[in-house]
Design goal:
The structure holds 2 protein chains of 2 kinds. Chain A is of the alpha/beta class. Helices cover 37% and strands 14% of the residues of chain A. Chain A has 11 helices and 9 strands. Residues 312-317 of chain A have low confidence and may be disordered. By secondary structure, chain B is an alpha/beta fold. Chain B has a domain at 30-90 and 104-176: Rossmann fold, CATH 3.40.50.2020. In chain B, the strands form 2 sheets. Chain B has a 5-stranded parallel beta sheet with strand order 3-2-4-5-6. In chain B, strands 1-8-7 form a 3-stranded antiparallel beta sheet. The termini of chain B are close together. The chains are: A alpha/beta, B alpha/beta. The interface between A and B is medium-sized, with 33 and 27 residues.
């Protein structure tokens, strides 16, 4: 384990789908050491001095963007962050031109979020610098799944043979898709639960169980993964009211009783309190939601190290 | 004789695999033990006791050596000094010269090093670059009163102004040669050998 090479050879991280189990494990292993740095009084190591990372977000974000930026800064990399609302995007510059312009300034790695699925993959194929997908449309959000896996690993000490119940708006959720791929590769069982209108057809083909009954999903679950109800994507009237949603699919103290005693409740944030999760559960001891945020920084540090720790002269200005 | 070694240390030339040809054993189990016991005595003498001393082993082979020094110090002074381990991967100066990045190990120092006399322990002192990285890593954790360096073998060829305070054995070498320290805790045997890398 120690003293070897890390086995990470990717220029880009587009999705969990393309990763092997070993690659996921390397990230988790590296994140363990990175988390130690976060606990120190001086949270900085010189590892990525002289490397430049650009966060390019075409969708709003608090935690993912700041998490990436802090991760880069703790490793001594420089960061540039492009807010599309105030950039040349408003003048009609194409996506690829924007990225190529930034690449010409010497960016080594782009962190990209976009509302259209496939954008990070498209950009990765057209530039020399690396790309990390920070969420694309309804496709994947790989770093979220990796930090979820890391959090479970810390709390449960294992990743195999767990029952993971993912509850809520599966249809719009890239977080759900990345988590499904991750847990399948790691040998745990995923059961999806939500109203029929929010579960995409043929999702069973990803080797998961589907139920519309929350009690069945929660029964004996090791992890209850609550998804955010994406209110900004609900204009089509996929469920009657928020109150009704909470009655059938909201996670509260009463519901939790069916799960295992040591169940963990997770949520990728931001939460709609009182809708998909009640405040008493979100703030209870079985909730690891804040831990997920801390671990997000550690996992992103691990990825930045794995992707930028190698040879530097590949992208000279 | 061919010896299995971790890929990280495996020099590759144009895809050809290399093997380690052993030339001589320069320390055996007893010699290592005697050297460490002497170093322990020197530590006590130099620091006038060990009440302010802490040991920090540099990963990987410095860690078991630090633990052994702790035992010897306990026999001499009847005090158990704290032992920690330091991983220097994130502080290496050659990260951007490598094609692939080495794995990151764990740093475990669960005691304060503020105002302590820190004894850094490693197996071989060669270019001094590992020690340079270790010093940087240490300073990020705290501000020790002094930092002293103990190594089992000093083989010369320093590239930085660094020297050891405690040396188990001075071994003159050529740059082509390689010193391998093998320890029971990691390699199943206690010995120090000198050899050379040959192409297969």
């Amino acid at each position: 384990m120690e003293g070897g090479l890390s086995m990470w050879k990717r220029k880009d991280l587009i999705g969990i789908e393309e990763l092997s189990r070993e690659e996921i494990e390397v990230v988790i292993e590296t994140a363990v050491s990175m988390k130690d740095i976060l606990k120190r009084p001086i949270k900085k190591v010189p590892t990525l001095r002289g490397r430049t990372i650009c966060t390019l977000f075409y969708e709003p974000s608090t935690r993912t963007r700041s998490s990436f930026e802090l991760a880069a800064k703790y490793l001594s990399a420089d960061t540039v962050s492009i807010a599309t609302a105030t950039s040349s995007v408003q003048k009609g510059e194409s996506l690829l031109d924007t990225v190529k312009t930034l690449e010409a300034m010497g960016i080594d790695l782009f962190i990209i979020r976009h509302s259209a699925s496939g954008v990070p993959s498209f950009i990765a194929k057209n530039i020399k610098a690396g790309v990390i997908n920070a969420g694309d449309g309804m496709h994947e959000h790989p770093t979220q799944a990796l930090l979820d896996v890391f959090t479970v690993y810390e709390k449960k000490g294992k990743l195999e043979g767990l029952k993971i119940a993912i509850v809520g708006d599966i249809f719009h959720s890239r977080v759900a898709r990345s988590n499904i791929y991750a847990w399948n590769k790691l040998g745990s069982n995923v059961i999806l639960c939500g109203p029929p209108t929010l579960i995409p057809p043929y999702i069973e083909n990803l080797n998961v169980k589907v139920t519309y009954d929350l009690n069945e999903a929660i029964e004996d679950a090791d992890i209850i993964y609550v998804l955010r109800l994406q209110l900004e994507r609900q204009k089509r009237g996929l469920f009657p009211t928020l109150r009704e949603y909470h009655m059938f699919y909201g996670i509260n103290q009463e519901r939790i009783k069916k799960a295992k005693k040591d169940v963990l409740v997770m949520h990728p944030g931001p939460m709609n309190r009182g809708v998909e999760i009640s405040s008493e559960v979100a703030d209870s001891l079985i909730s690891v939601i804040n831990e997920q945020v801390t671990n997000g920084v550690a996992v992103r540090m691990a990825l930045l190290y794995l992707m930028l720790g190698g040879k530097s002269d590949e992208n000279p200005v | 004789m061919k010896v299995g070694i971790p890929a990280f240390f495996m020099p590759m030339k144009g895809g050809k695999s290399m093997y380690f040809q052993e030339k001589a054993k320069i320390m055996d189990k007893e010699a290592i033990k005697r050297a460490l016991r002497r170093i322990a005595h020197e530590i006590v003498e130099r620091n006038k006791g060990i009440s302010n001393v802490v040991l920090i082993g540099i990963r990987r082979r410095g860690v078991p050596l630090a633990q052994r020094l702790q035992q010897f110090l306990k026999e001499i002074e009847d005090i158990e000094v704290p032992v920690g381990s330091l991983d220097i991967t994130l502080y290496r100066d050659d990260l951007n010269l490598r094609l692939e990045q080495p794995k990151v190990g764990k740093t475990e120092i669960d005691f304060p090093i503020e105002n302590k006399d820190v004894i850094l322990v490693d197996d071989v002192l060669y270019t001094g670059r590992t020690v340079r990285s270790a010093l940087d890593a240490l300073m990020d954790i705290g501000r020790p009163k002094t930092v002293q360096l103990a190594v089992l073998v000093d083989r010369g060829h320093r590239e930085l102004p660094i020297r050891a305070d405690y040396v188990g054995k001075n071994v003159p070498t050529s740059r082509k040669e390689q010193i391998e320290v093998r320890l029971e805790e990691i390699d199943g045997v206690d010995e120090v050998v000198i050899g050379e890398w040959k192409e297969d």
